[in-house]
Structure formats: C-alpha cells, structure tokens
Fold this protein.
Amino acid sequence: ECFEVPGQQLQIGETTKRQIELYTKLGVTPPASLQ
C-alpha cells in the first residue's frame, strides 16, 4: 500500500515491503506496481 502525503515523498507501507521480500524469496520478479 502507498500513502501520498502533500509536500512529502510517497510513503510505502510495510505490507508492500514484505510482499517484495516474499516475491524475492520465491525467485519471482515483483510487479512494477510494488517497486
């Protein structure tokens, strides 16, 4: 999940980071929407 905060950089939620880790552990390239 991503959070947009006015005047700040896009905030990426912890769930997304864990999803990327799972994809990496499975040897799968994460979808572009997660990067």
